[in-house]
Amino acid sequence: MKTKFRMHGNPSRDESPLEKDNRLLARQAAMEGFVLLKNEGVLPLEGKRIALFGIGARETSASGEGSGEVHERYDVSIEEGLKANGFVLVSTSWLDRYEAALRVAREAWKKEVEKKVRWYGPIRTMAMFAKIHSIPFVYPEALKVEEDDLADADVALYVLNRRAGEGADRSLRKGDWQLTDAEVENIRALSQHYRRFVLVINAGGFVDLSPLDAIPGIGAVLFYSEAGEEGGNALAEILSGAASPSGHLTQTWARHYEDYPSASLFGSLDGNPLQTDYKEGILVGYRHFEAQGISPRFPFGYGLSYTSFSQKLESLCSEKGIVRLSVLMRNEGEKYAGKAVSQLYLLKPQGGLIKERKSLAAFAKSSLLQPQESQGLNLSFDLRDLSSFDETRHAYVLGKGDYGLFLGTSSSEGAVVGYLHLPADILVKKVSPICLRLAGFEEELPAEVSEGRNSLAGLPFLEISPETILTEEAAGEGRIEEKETAETSRFLSRLSPDDLTPLVVGNGYSAPSYNLPRGTGRTTLKLLQKGLPDFNFVDGPSGVNLMPKLGFTPRGKTRYVDELPSDWQWGWIRHVGPIALLKKGQGYPRFFYATAFPVPSLQAQSWNLPLLEKIGEAVGAELSAFGQSVWLAPGMNLQRNPLCGRNFEYYSEDPLLSGLSAAAITRGVQARGEVGVALKHFCCNNQEEERTEMSANLSERALREIYLRSFEIAIRLSSPWSIMTSYNKVNGVYCATSYDLCTRFLRLENHFSGFLMTDWYATANHPENHAKALAAGVDILMPGNPKTLRYIKKALKQGSLSQETIRLSAIRILNVLLRGGVYRQFLEDQ
Q: Across the strands, what pairs with 756?
């Protein structure tokens, strides 16, 4: 058998046809995800002369930081996008002054970092990078707008910027959640000086806009979020009126931080970030605002357009608990074409269990409607999916009563158009208890939730017969038996029990590899002589996170093209860097310029599932071209609190929207049958502070109805190849070692048939968790190392881990990876 290596990627520096196609898709996704929050006739712009201000105009944030980054060929800033699309920037002096201040700050930061790491040598490389990461670069505060910056213009744009990412949460300080004094005064001065003023918010999450309530003259506000590599061009098209905004919020934007139900319970705000109590229970996001009667600044699902729409119910029917509505959507405007989102919420009757007043049940987005044009939209949902979990009976239950059908354009704007009548309680599904709450933990739910004042008299309704709703009893116990594919059986026949053990221990970045380039991590290479190459796993979820320029020696060693990666140019590495470069005329340079799509939170703001599926297909094509097998995405934790540093990686505060978005992306990625996804982070990874040790403490009801439901939806609708467990604990038990989560919920209840991996080094701090995780149902410990493998072999010898457990994991891993494109290419090479 040949044991060389296989290179992937583009041998040419030139932009590939795939890059060009995906760039256009990235622009479309950005345009559909921008949310117009306010417009007093300022947009679309009538003139082309713009006075441009704000950090985000030139230093536009395309994506969040950390593993969610993408190394695209180039990205278009807001300033560049305006210029490229015919706008004339009559004032950029503020940007020039800020850029100069930024250069000074960067140089000072680099000198400080170099001073701190100058004594670190090769043996202490990891410690050196830990030191570097402990000194993050902080952008200078916004400069004051001066008189000389104010030039005659048709409109002034101020681009507010915030940055966040993996490893740290946001804070309530000025310059993060709060506006700085300079930002407030700049916005005040510009809105007073210019007749037309637009505020653009370039941030992965929300900011407190309350200081602006007292400032008149802010004619428009647009939530740009982090719009990927084509964001600047996409914004220019929206501002010019070439396209109408059609994005809608996927998280409630409160008037005050204290309005969020988890406000005082997030991270260290309650004094103990290691124990985070989810006392709000099921009342997360808009569920809380509706239940408590709190008016948000912008409700969940909110978004404006340049035109207006009407929608009306055309028909209503039900069969076996599946409710279907036909809705006629009409563009009532006279000038602009646009797309509209029809949102259906179910109003729940109270009594018995305390329930949220309103839940998103279904949605659909129209095609581009010309003025006065109409389109029929079909919305449907399974009534069982909106049942409530009764912890005393360990069952999902539909309570008797009237269920209103609220059809609107947000969670707050719309009308009840019909209702469902259920004459008796229905026990929908009986399950085994999981993740029982800790002693002493209690939720703080309201004594009752108002059903509102919606009159149902005279509205169309359906009588739902309990006998027509299918019920089930989900298996929570039993023996796990995995069916082997034909290829898996053939492969296993060549392996001994000892051969299987390395399969459950992954590899990191630096170890040798058959498939190049190496991803973020991969499976073992120990079975190459047995006919199994390693399979690469690579970060997401805004795109494929690979170094864009790599070279390989004739022996398969990795080198760098042109220069070392910018974030490696520190200390001793900077001085010896040239020896790591690919020598001219020797070896094989390859290029991996991936597409930076808008961040997932913006993707979901499109409310366009077919568009998300296309994004998934585009990512899948890049994964295949780059020799990667599993994309460590979608990120689908819920946006429980606006301060979570990784909210930009997640879709929504709502589990239905999150689950459907993740399912659409997954179907797209896996459509070729060559590559797959790893849904992450399973589960309750809703804060970054102390993420490796914190315990999310919550009721089983909140866990099932809110935090597990999105995973359940994605598994059912898209069959993901893999799932990644999160670092944190749930009710005191690490997710990676929880049999309740990894086996009872995923495999026995929801029939997940892919393989389960840990997050990177999730069991490293507690080596006893290596064997515990495998026994709980995890299949691969990532990234793994020889020491981890020795722990597993020792556990097998001592009997704390069974060979049958290893074999089951091997079957699940091989069933997935042996059907992939990389394995087929490997067979062709032999």
A: 723
State the Cα–Cα distance between residues 496 and 484, nearest whole angstrom.
16
The one-letter amino acid at 41: G
Task: Kindly indicate the confidence band of residue 476, based on its pLDDT and cuts at 50, 70 and 90.
Answer: low
pLDDT > 70? residue 279 = yes
Q: Could you tell me how many helices (H) and strands (E) the chain has, helices first?
A: 21, 33
The tokens for 814 are 């091989």
Average pLDDT (363-388) is: 97
Q: Which residue, 72, 88, 79, 54, is CA-closest to 15?
A: 72
Read off the pLDDT of each residue in 434-462 and give the average, rounded to a whole number: 85
Run of H or E including 540: none
Helix spans in 562-699 (H): 571-576, 600-605, 609-625, 655-669
Rounded to an integer, the average pLDDT of 539-552 is: 95
The answer to whether residues 433 and 394 touch, using CB atoms and an 8 Å cutoff, is yes
**What is the SS3 string spanning 266-296?**
CHHHHCCCCEEECCCCCCCCHHHHHHHCCCC
CA–CA dist 754, 774 (Å, integer): 15
Residue tagged 């590599």 (tokens): 229
Q: Which residues contact 474 (CB under 8 A, 6 or more apart)?
A: 429, 430, 431, 432, 748, 749
Report pLDDT for 659: 98
Amino acid at 661: S
Q: Which CATH number fits domain 486-546+600-829: 3.20.20.300, 3.40.630.30, 3.50.30.10, 3.20.20.70?
A: 3.20.20.300
How far apart (Å, rounded) are the C-alpha atoms in residues 705 and 717? Answer: 17
Tokens 């029929």 identify what position?
A: 376
Spell out the domain ranges in the chain: 34-92+144-245, 305-473, 486-546+600-829, 549-591
Amino acid, res. 587: G
Query: How far, in Å, CA of 597 to CA of 599, rounded?
Result: 6
Return d(Cα 629, Cα 121) in angstroms, integer: 35
- Residue that has been written with the tokens 């950005």 in this structure: 30
What pTM was computed for the model? 0.97
d(CA 452, CA 455): 9
pLDDT in tens, 700-731: 999 999 999 999 999 999 999 999 999 999 99
CATH topology (fold) of 305-473: Immunoglobulin-like (2.60.40)
Give how far Cα 401 sits from Cα of 424, 543, 773, Å.
7, 46, 44
Q: Pick 34-92+144-245's CATH classification: 3.90.180.10, 3.40.50.1700, 3.40.710.10, 3.40.50.300.
A: 3.40.50.1700
Look at residues 718, 682, 635 and name the one whose alpha carbon lies nearest to residue 66: 635
Q: How far apart are CA 691 and CA 728, in angstroms?
A: 6
The predicted-structure confidence for 643-700, as pLDDT tens digits, reads as follows 999 999 999 999 999 999 999 999 999 999 999 999 999 999 999 999 999 999 999 9
Pairing of strands 358-365, 341-347: antiparallel
Enumerate the H helices of 431-587 as residue ranges.
Answer: 486-492, 497-500, 571-576
